[in-house]
Design goal:
The complex is a heterodimer of chains A (295) and B (271). Chain A is mainly alpha-helical and 295 residues long. Helix content of chain A is 73%, strand content 0%. Chain A is built from eleven helices and no strands. Chain B has a single domain, classed as Rossmann fold, CATH 3.40.50.300. In chain B, β4 and β5 form a beta hairpin. In chain B, α5 crosses α7. The longest helix of chain B has 21 residues. Chain A: It holds the Pfam family BPD_transp_1.
Chain lengths: 295, 271
Amino acid sequence: MNSRITNRIATGVFFACAALITLVLAGLLGYILYHGIAIINWDFLTSPSSSFRAGGGIGPQLFNSFYILLITMIITVPLGLGGGIYMAEYAKPGKLTSIIRTSIEVLASLPSIVLGMFGLLVFVNLTGWGYSILSGALTLTIFNLPIMVRECEDAIRAVPRDQREAGLALGTTHWHTIKKVLVPSAFPTILSGAILASGRVFGEAAALLFTAGLTTPRLDFGNWNPFSPDSPLNIFRPAETLAVHIWAVNSEGLIPDARAVADGASAVLIISVLLFNLIARALGRFIHKRLTASK
Amino acid sequence: MQLTLERTETEEVLQKVEEANKIALDVRNLNIYYGDNHAVKDVSMAIEKNKVTALIGPSGCGKSTFLRSINRMNDLIPSSRVDGTIQYDDVNLLDKQIDVVALRKEIGMVFQKPNPFPKSIYNNLTYALRYYGMKQKKVLDEVVEESLRKAALWDEVKDRLHESALSLSGGQQQRLCIARSLTMKPNILLLDEPASALDPIATSKIEDLILELKKDYTIIIVTHHMKQASRISDKTAFFLNGELIEYGKTKQIFTNPHEEQTENYISGRFG
């Protein structure tokens, strides 16, 4: 009888924990979406923000967020993949490897505001680029890289050993086996890892405050010359992202409709991150099916 | 008198050369260690060309380790250590200086669990060919067909070459893996319990295939299945606790073993 009661209590407690998490998430999402969704319309998503008057949008901020994300991933994915391949395939157990591993872990747990200060020092001041998309993207790369390395290493390690042996036993080199067998097999996992990391990067504010800046110059969306100062593609211009914009509007905004803009922007942010997660899963599953021909 | 003596000497030499030509691999005093574990103990044996040599013995007797030392797959295990020689033509396969990649091209291996790549059937077969610079579609098509025919799989898959290899049954996957090894035109095939994960029908297909393949290849097969060894092999080596207990013609080993341990094992008293 005793053990049955204990069992019931345990089941109840664990259920309560799970329910609590779900409730918190649902409450949070519900609250943000409830307040924000009414604000979102095409005009809000595309028009530039205003400094004093009501009725500004989040167009440039939304673009900046995606653009910084893109630049970050272009830098992070190859580096992360390279690091992951090294850790999974080449690193021999020993002192050096354990130092690298510890470094990755420490880097992964650094608070993003500290990385932001580091970015300010190195990518903003030392290089002389000032607040810019490139400084922001490099800072986010540092923020993102340890997780990407981990993700790639785990994905490659998860490829069954017999695949590795098959490649080697056929008389192809280790590198060829990695390139043509291991990485393609690990690709779905790496891809969904990268997209999940994208969600993290997309919502990051603290690391960007002092690196990509709090302003966006007037952009001419008809000018796609990346070297022109008012081109959206120029990576040496300052760029306020969506997450930074939410913070700025809330803490020092002068517009009368600050609350509405923050609500709307938060909803857009949350929906984007949610979409990243859903796409990551769907894409991972799709590619896995394609590769394994399972129905 | 002098003349006849010379002739017999020449004949002797010729006979020796001929015998040497029949030898695919000459293993001498092979010792393999995993850390402190002495896995293979001073094994010497000559493996004949175009014959099927079966390695039998209970689990952990060193037969797989022995097999994997031939194409240097043991190199992948950091704690492993090898001494002795395995003479293949005029090279010692255990020489640290030899090109392991080239060696594995000439000595193919098929593993216990079928391990096709998660690619199409066609791309499984062209994987290594492309690495060696074969790019023309016509040439690739030819090798694919030839290898699949040799592996007795062509008729079953010729209409679905571009479907995933993982959509094949276990037995078909294993024959695909054999075909994949054959694309490299190896001289020797190492089979590590190739049928142990398969059902009886798929197993008998693999056995027929092995008998067919020995015309062109030297085959060394590790098997747990004694009936299988007696059905398909010409010579059998019995391993126990890392030692080669007995090596001889399969018929002799199974009907008239010289060693008591061999007799105990094949009569099912242990293992």
